[in-house]
Amino acid sequence: MAEIYIGYEFKVSPLQPGVEILIAELGYAGFESFVETEMGVTAYIQKAEWNANILEDIQILDSDEFEITYTFEDIEQTNWNEEWEKNFNPIVVDDICAVRAPFHNKFDTLFDIVIEPKMSFGTGHHETTHMMIQHILNANLEGKSVLDMGCGTGVLAILAEMKGAKPIDAIDIDNWCYLNSIENVERNNCTNITVYEGDASLLEGKSYDVIIANINRNILLNDIKTYASCLNENGSLFLSGFYNGDIPTIEAECNKNMLKLSEKLERNNWVALKFLN
After folding, report:
1. Environment class of residue 39 by beta-carbon count within 10 Å: exposed (0-12), middle (13-18) or buried (19+)?
2. What domains sit in the chain, N to C, each tagged with a CATH number?
3. Whose CA, among 108, 164, 226, 241, lies 20 to 30 Å from 17?
């Protein structure tokens, strides 16, 4: 029997930073996956984890700064694969890296990544994933240890291995993303990636040459200190998941932890930054 999920359709005004704040708060409440829409965001939670008071602690719903309305309904998991197959188009980044589904024809690119995203983030379509792919394409990862934090589909970890990185750890707190990353790692015949389910507490005692973190701004601000402590000498930290206006706050936290801004990519007001220690 297929698992039943509850899908909440939120309409948010103004969209930003309303959607970003809402996603962060819903994540802490147990919602597993999110799809941003033109009007706001759709959020999913397993029915087994749901209760009638699930939105009680979502503070932004009581804020005078935002107008947020929502509806919700049961959704059967069995229909989702068909839905994303109808809507998921392949992408090519900088004519070098293709990200496609198993049912798409192979591209004549240097890197060809095959993923089945299901409900995980990281198809490459979102601006932040697209820019992080660009950062990885420009980086020398040969023989370097890499962490992909908030790995989603595992697409960034997979590209890192294709660029010669090893060993690679991929971590996501979302069980769906954890399982999906394992599937996609196997699908791309990667042998140097280990996938973990959890958060930054798993990083104790670990060290990496390169850390990639494409996560919500508030989580990044909380975890930058941990990333800095895990970064080897002459290491690189790539951060995304936030807007141009968030750069001063992110940069200040990085500077506090002896990390200096090196490169910036921007796409539709989203940014991806490279820091060096």
Report:
1. middle
2. 4-82 (3.30.70.930), 88-276 (3.40.50.150)
3. 226
